[in-house]
Amino acid sequence: MNESTASKWIKVLPGLLFMFVIALLAMGTKTLGGEWAGLEGWIKTNSKFLGDVLKINHVIIVIIIGMVIRNTIGIPSWAQAGVKTSRIFIKMGVILLGSLYSLAELATLGSTSILLIATFMFSTIIFTMWLGKKYNMDPGSAACLAAGAGVCGVSAIVAVAPAVKARGEDIAYSIATILSFGIVCLFTFPILGHLMGLTPEQFGMWAGTGILNSGQVLAAALAFDPGTADVPSISLKVGEIYNLTRVVFLPLVVLLITILYARMSDDKTVETAASAGKTFFSKFPLFVLGFIATVTLTSFGAFGPTHPVSPDLKAFRDIYSWFFSIGLTGLGLQISFAEMRKAGGTPLVIGSVAGFLKAALSLVVVLWLF
Amino acid sequence: MSEKKEEKQLSLFSNDKHEDLVAIFGAALVMILVLIL
Asked: What are the transmembrane regions (chain A) (predicted)?
């Protein structure tokens, strides 16, 4: 490790500690062997409406604290580098989450998720690009928006942008639109899910299909059903498989959107058959392989029995809860209202229509089929 | 310094693949520590 890499790692430590303290404030010390139930416990004891009706738990609390800090005093300069690493905690949490599944469960959940995700993802992309063309949007801007609305939010937009020659403001508009819509989903999906009496399985399928951003799927699933080390969250278990299916589709989506963009813009220079394969492999999310490795190891008993659950597996569940809380604190700290105000005009209308239709239709399909 | 350059300097990872590999390594380390301790 050279000096600059080492100093970068040291620079992230204050920010990591900052996110950990916020997570600790929300979660308390119970999973660390203490007695304090944190703000989540305080809300449950003192407000029936917030605790029992709106089901506010540590996940929503860390996101709200993060958003309040970001949009009032701002992220302290000493914490900025650490906050930028928050996504890695979500990825490590997802890899550890693999210990909840067996290969057989993965095959069953995976086959239904592939069908549902593929249907909604590709139809949303085609619909958004068609609507963009109808309302004379720039093809690059429509392509970015289609990627965000169809697959997994910000990463999809960033992945598609170079291929469709999107301008800086197209990327900013699309990200702002998708994030604004996602924030609304993050807070409304769990409340609607409880009001409609969805089962945790149904909610997981709905959130995994209807919410656009990976972090927001995770947050909504945990907000609906936080689970414990003894009884893990079913909505998280189901929702994350749907989310990962979508993430795995990303390379294929980049390819499809590039082809659609070439047709819309008559730009023949964007994608050739030779570069198509390269695009596919360069966009493949490697951390999903870590998740599959954990599922395989768990299935072969590497971490002990799953019924009753071994102490090692219980420890994994406590650790991924902390990783998710830290990662989602970072998500909240990166939500800037000033950035979201960049969304507007035609992209906001088209993105919201596509997102709303996807959310509503996926709810109908989930209620109808499952 | 432009916003993009500053962002790059703050970021610990050079790209998504780098971040994914560090996540896999980190999670594996956690598993090993849990199994040992």
From this structure: 12-29, 110-131, 143-165, 171-192, 204-224, 244-263, 284-304, 319-337, 349-369
Residue B10 with chain A: CB contacts under 8 Å: 11, 80-81, 84
Maximum Cα interatomic distance, chain A, rounded to a whole number of Å: 64
The model's pLDDT over A57-74, given as tens digits with 9 standing for 90+, comes to 888 899 999 999 999 999
A92 and B23 in contact by Cβ < 8 A? yes
A343: number of Cβ within 10 Å = 21
Report chain B residues whose CB lies below 8 A from the CB of A290.
Answer: 20, 23-24, 27-28
- Paired with A306 in beta bridges are A309
Specify whether the CB–CB gap between A189 and A210 falls below 8 A.
yes
At A346, which amino acid appears?
Answer: T
Q: What share of chain A is helix, strand, coil (3-state, %, to 5)?
A: 75, 0, 20
Separation of alpha carbons A266 and A214, rounded Å = 32
- Torsion sign (Cα): A336, A338, A341, A343: negative
pTM: 0.83
CA A120/CA A127 separation, integer angstroms? 10
Distance of alpha carbon A68 from alpha carbon A336, whole angstroms: 9
The amino acid sitting at B34 is: V
Q: How far apart are CA A220 and CA A330, in angstroms?
A: 15
Picking from B10, B20, B34, the nearest residue to A286 by CB comes out as: B20
Closest-CA residue of chain B to A91: B23
Most B-contacting residue of A250, A287, A295, A298 (CB-CB within 10 A), to test interface: A287
Q: What's the pLDDT band for A278 if we cut at 50, 70, 90?
A: low
Q: Do A88 and B28 lie within an 8 Å CB cutoff?
A: no
Mean pLDDT of A33-58: 86
Q: Which residues of chain B have pLDDT under 50?
A: 1
